[in-house]
Structure prediction request, 257 residues.
Amino acid sequence: MLVDSHCHIDFAEPDQRRGVIDRARAAGVATMLTIGTTADELDDVVGIAASDLDVWATVGIHPHETEKTPDGVVQRLAQLTAHPKVVGIGETGLDFHYDHSPRDRQATMFRAQCRVAREAGLPLIVHSRNADAETIAILKEQGMTTGIIHCFSTTRALSEPALALGFHISISGIVTFKNADELRSIVAEIPLDRLLIETDAPYLAPVPLRGKTNEPAFIVHTAAKVAELTGISVDELGRATTDNFFRLFAKAKRPAA
Prediction:
């Protein structure tokens, strides 16, 4: 059994979402976590999770979206944490690569979502790009000790302090890319009990499907590469990352055997 710890099922057209989920199940992906990124899509993301026993949701505001997001949405995030299918907060964080929103606004919304997660007792899903030091500084400032550095593709300057705080590291299809040698060396060092895998679908399809629209079923290729790097079988990796997921997202329920 595999878990896709970060995907965007809502990005698929409504009439295509059931096919995405069904193909994932056929590939051995028993559980999926669909991630909220904008204020307008929160109800849609939660609705997708509510419609399927083994799909769960997080609610959050992506750093790209923070400039056009009113402060009042933070209260809405807090309210949604009571929903039985909402198991985490995010995707939040900092993106200083594209700078689609002002950096001070990104930081303000990041801090606010840290507080929502902390007060609700839910894990935080963190996006960090070209902002390693700033991301860690805010996590420390906010007293965050539980969550995920999602789609990790940077350096030990992020992975090591994040692990020290208590965070998990989630690996996407980037680990299969030709130019990802440094990432592969870091993956081999991540403690097995802090490791997760994800697709970030519909983005970042792994080799040998690079260039296609990604979906949760494709996580099998990422799992194979991560298992190879960690020196264990795919079955063992699946068991470990599944255990990690349900330990971290304690509100989520394991699928029936």
In short: The CA atoms of residues 119 and 142 lie 11 Å apart.
